[in-house]
Amino acid sequence: MKRLLISIFVYAVLLFSAVHLSAQDGGETSAPAPDVMTLAYNNILVILAVLVLIGVILAGLNLIWALIEIQRIKLLDKYGPEVLEKANLSATGTLWDKISQKSWNLVPLEREKEIEFDHEYDGIRELDNSLPPWWVWLFYLTILWGAAYLVYYHLTDMGPNQEQEYVMAMEAGEDQKAKFLASQANAVDENSVVFLDDPAALEEGKTIYMANCAACHGNSGEGLVGPNFTDKYWIHGGGIKNIFSTIKYGVPEKGMISWKTQLRPAAMQKVASYIMTLEGTNPPNPKAPEGNLYEPEKDNTAPEQKSNTEEVKSGN
Amino acid sequence: MESFNYDNKIVRNFAFASIAFGVIGMLVGLLAALQLVFPSLNFGIAETTYGRIRPLHTNAVIFAFVGNGIFMGVYYSLQRLLKTRMYSDVLSQIHFWGWQAIILAAAITLPLGITSSHEYAELEWPIDIAIALVWIVFGINMFGTILKRRENHLYVAIWFYIATWITVTVLHVFNNLELPVHLFKSIPVFAGVQDALVQWWYGHNAVAFFLTTPYLGLMYYFLPKAANRPVYSYKLSIIDFWALIFIYIWAGPHHLLYTSLPDWAQSLGTVFSVMLIAPSWGGMLNGLLTLRGAWDKVRTDPVLKFMVVAVTAYGMATLEGPLLSVKSINAISHYTDWTVGHVHVGALGWNGMLTFGVLYWLIPRIYDTKLYSMKLANWHFWIGTLGIAFYAIPLYWAGWTQSLMWKQFTPDGFLVYGNFLETVTQILPMYMLRIVGGTLYYAGVLMMVYNIWKTVAAGKLIADQPAQAPALEAYVPHKGEYWHKWIERKPIQMLIASAVLILIGGLVEIIPMMMIDNNVPKIASVQPYTPLELEGRDIYIREGCVGCHSQMIRPFRSETERYGEYSKSGEFIYDRPFLWGSKRTGPDLHRQGGKYPDSWHYNHMLEPESMSPGSIMPPYPWLFKNEINTKYTAAKIKTLQTLGTPYPDGYADRAVEDLEKQAKQVAERLSKDGINQDNMEKKEIVALIAYLQRLGTDIKVKQTPAAEVK
Prior knowledge:
The complex is a heterodimer of chains A (316) and B (710).
Chain A (H helix, E strand, L loop, with lengths): L1 H28 L6 H7 L1 H36 L1 H7 L7 H10 L11 E6 L2 E4 L5 H23 L6 H22 L15 H14 L1 H4 L15 E2 L4 H11 L15 H13 L13 E3 L17 E2 L4
Antiparallel strand pairs in A: 1-2, 3-4, 4-5
Chain B lengths: L1 E6 L1 H29 L12 H33 L6 H21 L15 H23 L8 H20 L2 E5 L2 E4 L3 H36 L6 H15 L14 H13 L1 H14 L4 H6 L1 H23 L2 H7 L3 H30 L7 H34 L12 H6 L2 H31 L5 E6 L14 H5 L2 H25 L15 H12 L14 H7 L34 H9 L1 H4 L21 H10 L8 H22 L11 H11 L10 H5 L1
Helix pairs in contact in B: 1-2, 1-3, 1-16, 2-3, 2-6, 2-13, 3-4, 4-5, 5-6, 5-7, 5-18, 6-11, 6-13, 6-18, 7-9, 7-18, 9-11, 11-13, 11-14, 13-14, 13-16, 14-16, 19-25, 21-25, 23-24, 24-25
């Protein structure tokens, strides 16, 4: 007995210190409380383990009851019911039967007449079975859950409202992105972008073009709703940097959408490079030139142009 | 002993109407399902386009198939439970023909695009009034029957009928409060968030009090009759009934989780939905446990098989519903096909299978014959059950898949599926399987039609079935009788008690939304629609765009990244009706304004695939032929002014002038983009473009929404 008390004490101390430690951890990192779904997801193995454990315990109990039952039958066989009654071993059914009986509280079919109302409606009779206890507890539980929910989210400020949830999600997203970008060196922007002449990159650029740009600028860049890419005139400036910038930020007032949320910088670089290769390809049904004749800067890869910048009226 | 006759003819009429409209309504549903995979089946005709077909399907199966099914069951059981004929044969006839006339009116007006756009309440105001009148006729007939009864106590089925009647009356009236502009157009008195709350208070309880409580009443009558078993627990009936009607009415806001409905209202929706699990299961348990001792019969009797599947489907759907009302699950399920799968478990399983079970049981009885073929009924059962599985499982799959695709980010902060269309084409195979499921289910229905046809041909209708019962005697209460017995003898008290219970939830949620201003914070920059935008909006409503496109961006990173800043309640104060939608077959449109050029919309509406290859959206060629109808523009402005939209005094007179001016501007912009058409500025497409370009542009927000909120 003494040993038992000592071991309980030791366990209690261990348990307490464990709780204490984890509380400190929480204090240091001060991470936002994860929601139940994440928590459940992160601990899926633990939850499964607990479920298996419960299953094992139930199976074990069932086995014990089965063994007792076998023992009872053996005794019954050997000594007859009188002795058995004296031995007080007359429990009937397995544990499962008992749990089932307790949770349903059903009156057996044979004794149904005892609980039948002496009244019928067009031949329909009614029984006076009690409410299934498990159902009653389920009802209480959902009501308690409801009360707890309202306390958690509204009567106290423990739970975040949906705007706070949103801010948290956005911050988490930004963090994730920043961490990833810090580990990568793929950040291209309008200042650092250069023309790619690698055929594989241009081929990829073409795929992106066909999927996203062709609807407005034509399959061959001849221009439809959007301007023609095959001439030397550019509304928002030619050259890789200007084209990249136009794709990235768009010109919403003229109908060119911003692609920065749909295309990665590297993808915009590839498609911009592909667009530059369209110049001078002379596709059928070209749209009339729009914007200004673009004179490439000296450091650009395209060949030098001699003509002056001249205004072109936009046609239909 | 008194002798009297039961009216079986009216039961027969409702039964046949239910079958006929089931056949039609489900066929329309099948067409809608096909259109989602094969857009060419929209036929390029306005009347057969998905947006107009969908409400036709939902109205036909809810109000025509199930509605007539309810009346069939009520007229059969009420007479027998009360030992009397219906109160008035004339009222029965008015009820029957009135209801069919309403259905006919719906079948004509919905394809014509005459709609209020409130889901399951699409019908316009003259039909709304007709519904109210016919419903009152039904009420008078039912209460008249109850009052001249030969039975002291009202059986539980009748409690459900009473609660159904009063609640549907209240819901129908409040959700259809609207001011007529002309015979086929009205404007709802509530706007934006308030309209949304009232609509989903209605919409949810249309499920509760049209598809559930009357059918529970039918279950309580027909299941014990068919099984020849006593009802399992009278106590459970009592608790189940009162708890169900009290709690159900609160749950409406769960259709608006994560929208701009205030948090407190959303939470009430969630909490009461979860509390609804036990009361809903009470009905299921009472049904299934009534079969205790009769399961051997279930194996052989198709009627009982249908009923078992119906009650089980009811139990599954009413567990799933509360789970879908939990915010973290709703964040995944909402706007996806999961919801569509969920409702069809209820509709095909619970309502469909119970109706079939009742029909197979009842038709041979009123025709004094045997069912033509048990074998065929068994086939119907198996093929129908299989059909439900093939319908629901692919849609669950589709819903989860699409939702996860919507939410998936790359490590560098981009949406993996930035193009919405990718998430649609991904689930088309599941839509295909859904068609298979629907077809199987439909094949079962056709088998039933044949079976019942042959049964009817073999028998003869007992139009007036003789019966006998002792006259009603004054009731002497037993000593120590349970208090509830008292209310079971008092139909009017029961009516009042039900009314009080169902009003509590509705009033607690709706009144604060109407009265307390800070539930809808005002935004100064939000302005009323211009006359052209207003006409464009009415075209959007007419075409049923809301069936596939939401206008409600939820505060999720994945949504603000895809669509733009999340929607604020103050942005919708001039939206009559609200157009938030409940399903995204296409992308959300709330921040559509200014996203694409006018010409993009022009081409896209003419031929969606030209702008988004692979799109399943149907083309709308008639918008390019029809001219904008400005006949009622001034009347609309005046009606809106009456409701409080701040147009300047006398603006109605200048409205058409303004409309033409703006239309000309849109036409000029299109022309600049190389799009020319004769009389372009007069065409409907111009109004629609003006509306789409206005959407969500009244508030200007910075690019980083997170910073904005802080």
